[in-house]
Amino acid sequence: MVSGVILALIAIAFVLIVIEDIIHVNKAKTTLFFGTLCWIISFIFPLHGQSSQIIQNELNHNILEIATLWLFLMAAMTFVAYLNSKGFIQNLVHRVMPSKITERNLMYLVGAFAFIFSSISDNITATLISLAVVMSLKLEAKKRIKYATLIIFAVNSGGVSLITGDVTTLMIFLADKVTIGNLLLLVAPAALSVFALAMMLSIGMKGVLTFEQVEHRRIEKTDITIAVIFFTTVISTLILSVLYKVPPLLTFLFGLSFMFLVAQFLMRKKDVNKKIIDYVREIEYDTLLFFVGVLLLVGAMKEVGVLAQFTHLYEVLSPEYANYIMGILSAAVDNVPLTAALLKADIVMDTRQWLTFTYATGVGGSMLIIGSAAGIIAMSKIKELTFISYLKMSFYLLVAYTIGYGSSYFVGQWFLN
Q1: What's the CA gap between 114 and 180, in Å, rounded?
Q2: Of 87, 88, 150, whose CA–CA distance to 114 is shortest?
């Protein structure tokens, strides 16, 4: 009975996200309300006869995941907020971009940038920077949605072959299901799927973008210094995570604190009205609260036992087909607990099949706007990008995902046979 009530509340929450534009109620408010309500109910009416201490432990684990992501987002978004407010990114775009570029070529360029950047950094940072580039251009709403769709897919695809690029990839690697050499085989399939999506989305885009020949603003030494600290933090996060298992959150918070101290010293002799730490206030807290609500809802789904039910799919389908479907399901359910449930179930698969599962859970979240961190960030940044407007791109996304999944299968057959 209690499980049914919680599932009904979760369903209502996701429906309200979908119809946000109709009811005009911010999705952060609805997800936070229903997410907390589900956990309160689970305490008042314990599931499966569990003690309050067990439920508290599960909530603590869920809160730890939320806090880690929340703090990481806060650090990354503060860097970007500062660089955006100073016009650093826009200025850089105008300096690097040619005076004219076709909309189609820009589509390929944006896709390649998002794919490569997410390979050397985390998905959140790659999404923020890629979106900042697109938002600096004067584009029609429909075209902006297309570019944002490509960025979400490319960012999720870029990190799938690296243990530092996607949490599920790291989980599968630590479980000794694949090696780093195996994972590198996913680079080509992932890149091919991004190229295919860019090609489909660029159909009918024949315009030429002319960049306004504005006078290049002088880039302040302080801004250059903070940009260097930012990218050094991104690279250090990757290196320290691989070599010494330092949590990415710790490295990013260190980078943020270092940025505060350096900027304080550099700005000391300048007549500035705004302190460097004030840029924390420019973060979109709606995005962060939305994350909290969504992850609370997913945690509640895990407690009800919904995630464990997905493993029964492998009893009726062969792993090749089940993995493909699991990838699509990960768009509606957080891929981290989904992967954890599958690993705990001890599903028997060979290396080739685990490789396709890695691709599926890493990229499958792109099918829905709420299926990945990149999608949620993009939805909060671009007002025209809603659940429905993104859903209109679902055919292209499904085709691109299928191309990438099929390619990962054949690459595994070819090299791991």
Answers
A1: 22
A2: 150
